[in-house]
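Issue 218. Parser rejects a valid record. Input:
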Amino acid sequence: MKTNKKNSKKIISTKLKSKNFLAHILLFIFAIFFCIFIILNNSFDNINLQSDFLVERAIVHDILGENLQEDFYIPNIYIGSQRVMLEILSGNHKGQFTEAENRITRFHNIILQSGQEILVSITDGLEYITFHDISIYGNNRFTVIITAFILLCLAIILINIKKGYTSVISLLFTFIVVIFFMIDRILLGGSPVFYSIITAFLTTSFNIFFSSGFGKKSAVAIISTWTGLITAIFISVILSNMTNISGINLEDARQVMYHTPSGITIDIRELFFAVIIIASSGAMLDTSISVTSHLFQLKEYSKISKKEIFKSGITYGGDIIGANASTLILALFGSSLVGFMLIILFDFPFLRIINLDFIAVEVIKVVSAAFGLLITIPVAAILGAKFFE
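Output the parser choked on:
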């Protein structure tokens, strides 16, 4: 009898794995076609602002002359100018050689060297460029950034080959959906809240199903993620209404508002909630998957009661809350470090500090996410105790 039961369990397990594998492949194919579709059908070319200059790649062939001196106020910083010979490497002027002046200031502190690849701005509409038509735009960091990203992906895969590749694919899927779907739709005048919710649903669902398969574990993770996310949205709406904070108070929101092409209206006020939805979805997703995976493995390898599963989930979740609370606070200081430095330099009174826009915005984001996490954990523990019995 025992042998028959073991054999039947093995057969059921094999069937479930084959079904999950097939679903995995279908989900992967869907993700590829969806990403190709939104990339090919984006509207960036139609809504981009027209500029009177082009940014192209160039290489420094020679330093013709320079006049550099150490900055009097900032140590190890040099200011002055350089005269260089450049070769254009991209665009309509590819292959042309021209001289250019590099003005080196505190805020545009790029000291060029022979053989260095850089970005230059060129006046648009010219057949040939001269000394007066070109200026140094900045460093070309493309190779370094792409290499760093590839190394990160390889490191993730090497740590855990089976889960690593799913993590990398989920990362790429999330990046593409946010850029080519959510931002594209918002810039066309779509509702920031609506498209951020759709984006959060697509990315969190794909991440969970692609990493955990189709089953009870994924169902618990999705329900707990969205319960926490809805809580975070609800708290942010209450706090924003009480503090009179909206997307208008976000950094660079005014620039978006003023530079939006004519005929397109973007609801700037909703951008605040879109930021919270996208940012919070990541925190809820991470927490729900961690708690759910812990409970799933606990039940799989030991025989414990529903009550013990729930207690274990709450205890494990409490540790996550402690770590995430510190992460949220550190993220607050990290994103607004310069602002806090200015506050100290100007010796602002506490009443003025607590009423600054950027302080209110960051506090609402942190508090909303924290409340979402506080709901995500018990929901995951309750559902885990019910479904993993």
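Fixed in the parser; the record now loads. The first strand starts at residue 53 and ends at 70.
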